[in-house]
Amino acid sequence: MIDLNADLGEGFGRWSLTDDEALLSVVTSANVACGFHAGDPSTMRRVCSLAAERGVRIGAQVSYRDLAGFGRRAMDVPPDELADEIAYQIGALQVFARAAGSRVSYVKPHGALYNRVVHDNEQAEAVVSGVLRAGAICDGPLPLLGLPGSRLLAVAEGVGLPVVTEAFADRAYTWAGTLVPRRDPEAVVHDPEQVIARAVGIARDATVTAVGGEPVSVQARSLCVHGDTPGAAQLAWRVRGALASAGVRVEAFS
């Protein structure tokens, strides 16, 4: 059994990057951009409404304040400021989730922040603090979605927050089980057949092939297919079909 998630709502104003409606017919969890790396109020409202209609779980995809760089540029944000910005983003999305008759069910960092909190304890603590600050407007502690073995998940578990381990079918891995940095030309897996095979391997065998060719153990409860990949919706359908054929049930994490 595995959850299938995608990054959605990644547009701004007249600019649109993700095929939200098509992807919401496939995924079980939607990581919705909250306005800091992408997303605007109308986009957030629309995606939350569609997700609620289709029974897709809504997650807050929080990031550094970096619209120009799509949240993928390294930034140094003071911990208290970052915690406030995390809480702010969750609160903004919760307004639209509630208006749609749903709620924010989990939090996932995006881009540079996601990679930073794999190793940076201070920034990980700031993200967790932000999630805790938003707890007053959420139905209990929000689970954090992140990389297995990351400081983020360790810090979250230390304060009693639920955690959900995540893997990527379309991202390259190092021998250490971390993601290859985006600046590396091998960071993204573009071949659909390879993405599908990796998805099945992760879900069924808990392994993925690293860039050096060696198998790496990846224990994941949720599998991500990036929404900004060309043809993402069609690829997500193929991934879901392949998982079903391999005896893997696609279901939102509890």
SSE diagram, text form:
Layout: E1 3-8, E2 11-12, E3 15-16, H1 20-23, E4 29-33, H2 41-53, E5 57-62, H3 79-99, E6 104-109, H4 111-119, H5 121-133, E7 144-146, H6 151-158, E8 163-168, H7 192-205, E9 207-209, E10 215-217, E11 222-224, H8 232-245
Parallel strand pairs: 1-4, 1-11, 4-5, 5-6, 7-8, 8-11
Antiparallel strand pairs: 2-3, 9-10
Helix pairs in contact: 2-3, 3-5, 4-5, 5-6, 7-8
Function: Catalyzes the cleavage of 5-oxoproline to form L-glutamate coupled to the hydrolysis of ATP to ADP and inorganic phosphate.
GO biological process, one term: carbohydrate metabolic process
Pfam families: LamB_YcsF
CATH topology: TIM Barrel
C-alpha termini separation: 11 Å
Going by CATH, the homologous superfamily would be Glycoside hydrolase/deacetylase
The top level CATH class name: Alpha Beta
What percentage of residues falls in helices of 4 or more residues?
Answer: 25-40%
Name the average pLDDT. Answer: 95
As for the number of domains, it is 1
Computed Rg: 17 Å
Low-confidence blocks of residues: none
Reported for the largest beta sheet, the result is: 7 strands, parallel
Produce a short descriptive summary.
The chain contains 8 helices and 11 strands. It is α/β, with parallel strands linked by helices and 254 residues long. It has a single domain, classed as Glycoside hydrolase/deacetylase (TIM Barrel, Alpha-Beta Barrel).
